[in-house]
Every structure is written in structure tokens, then in C-alpha cells.
């Protein structure tokens, strides 16, 4: 459900026209309504069920890491984007019949039902992004939930539901009150005290950022420090990074976290692409808002290997290009994107043609296109 929600968001953000994805998003909306109505055989709220059978939509009854409470906020975010576009396209009927009904039908609509889950359960214990670790205060979950609440308050206001808007605003504020102090260590943003330097943070910087408060803006000191620390960790972690640098292949490959042992513990396409996207977003942010603080510039200077006085918006884009070029070096000319890249040989491996890998690469390329638009 997480991968699907992020993919549907990517589809909307990278498409050239509404007609390209209207039917796909309507089908996805129907899918969400269907699975929200299921009774979960695993004894959890079905909104936190991570896996469903295809094509019937029944919850997966086998063993898995559950519950996963990031799904509702991510789904609601993608569906709110779609609903706003539908309204702009004068198709509010689909919204009122399926996404925000204004009454008790369909649990109030696919969007409201998911947003209401976040209000009451954002502090609940959950499996992490990688479906391995359980905690009740994961950075990825909190920042993406906060994003959903901010968007939800605006959308509820648009739909004339002031009570829901107030509830979502209060929840966003409650999440925000601990987000920074709990996860910023002074040298990096961490996923959790039990799983510190984690690629989920990099993806979260992209997915969860909201311009209404600019927390963890892509050119900020906190993001610069995190990238600096993570670069050092992943370069030390993977022999292929050392080899590539020795062969003058630019960039860096990111994985999930230090001492990962899944499939041998390797760089991942999606986390590496997310770093590229973060750097491209940094270029766009600087282009629009100007250079960050002197502390941030000094830290970015270490990341980029240039004097701080030489840093411009283009520097961020050049760094993003380096990351995607290293990724491209290992992907080759077929442009098939798998899950992982072998830590020693640089050959793609594990799950083939992973949808989320494609989404993250497309997100990065879209952010780059925006810079030159």
C-alpha cells in the first residue's frame, strides 16, 4: 500500500497531462475504497494492512511485518492531489461520491477515512519503511503523516468541513512539536534511536516536506549535515562506492542503513535516486529562495568538495547529476530498474523492475526538469 500510494503520487507529479492518468487514478481510488471496506484477518485495522491479494483485494493472510501505519497518510496525500485536480477539471462529482462524501457513506470517503486514522493513531506502534523494525516514533512515518495533515486541513476547508480541518491542523501541530527535537541529533536527522542513519530519512525529506513551514528544507543546514554523514557511512559501507570513486565515476550509491543484511546488504536504486532528487530539489529551492545560512554553506562545501563561496543553485544540480550518473553507470542502457545493486560487483540484483525504483528515478528527473524550465 505504501509503494502504491507513492507510485500514484509520482504518476501525477511527472505526467504531462491530466488525461494521461485520470483513468488510472480513478481505478486506484476504487481500489482504496475496496480495501478499506475489507475485514482484516490479521486482527489489525485494515487501513494499516500492508499487502492485499490481486485481483480480489483480500488482505494478505500470511506472515508479514504489520501493522504499517504510514499507508493511510500516503494514500490520502495522493488522493487529495487527484481530488484537487478533479475539482479544477470540473469533475467534483467523483470526489463527492468517492473521496469525500460529506456523510457516513463509504466511511466519509477514501480520503477522509484515511486522514481520520492518522488523527487517532499517529503515535501507534508500527513497522518501519523496510518492514523489519517496530517503533512508535519513526521519522518517515511522522513526517509523511504531518504532510498529510497539513494538506488534509486545506482540503477539508475546501470541502466545507471546518471541524475536520481543525482536527487535522491540531494533529499536524502535535506531530511537529516533537519531530525536530526527537530526530535531529545536532549532526544528522535519524530515523529512530534504535535505527539511526537510515535511507528512509532521505526519502522522507522529499515526500514529507511542506513549504508552509520549511522544516528540513532541501538546502538547510540539517539536510546538509545529514547528507554529509550519510555519504561517509555509505561510502564506507560499500566497496563499490570506493571502487567507483577510484575509477572516477561521480556520485555515491545509498542503501537502506548500516549493517543491513537483507540479500547481503547492498545499495538500493530507490534511496540513491531519492538522494539525487533531494539535491535537485535543493537547486530549485536555492534558485527560488536564495542561498542558505553560512553554516549550511560550510557543510554543503564539505559535501560538494568546493569552496562555500562557489556554491550556487547549479552546484546542487551538478551534484544531483553525479548521483544519477553513478546510478546510470550500473544500470546500463536497458534502463530496467531493479531493487538493489551488488555492494561488490555493482550489478543489479534482487527484485526485478521494482515499481518504486522507477518512481524515485522519475521523481528525480522531474525535479531536474523543473530547474531548467
Task: Characterize the structure shown.
The chain has helices spanning 2-14, 22-36, 71-88, 92-99, 110-121, 139-158, 162-183, 199-208, 221-237, 239-246, 269-289, 294-304, 313-331, 355-372; strands at 126-127, 134-135, 340-341, 348-349. Helices cover 57% and strands 2% of the residues. α3 runs antiparallel to α5 (110-121). The chain has 373 residues and is mainly α.
Helix content: 55-70%
Can you give the mean pLDDT?
97
Unreliable runs, pLDDT <50, ≥5 residues? none
Radius of gyration, in angstroms, nearest whole number: 20 Å
Tally of separate helices: 14
Shape: globular
Count the beta strands. Answer: 4
Overall SS class = mainly alpha
Main attributes of the structure:
373 residues, mainly alpha, two-stranded antiparallel ribbon, two-stranded antiparallel sheet, 4 strands
Question: What does the secondary structure layout of this molecule look like, with pairings?
Answer:
Blueprint: H1 2-14, H2 22-36, H3 71-88, H4 92-99, H5 110-121, E1 126-127, E2 134-135, H6 139-158, H7 162-183, H8 199-208, H9 221-237, H10 239-246, H11 269-289, H12 294-304, H13 313-331, E3 340-341, E4 348-349, H14 355-372
Antiparallel strand pairs: 1-2, 3-4
Brief synopsis:
With about 375 residues, the chain is an all-alpha fold.
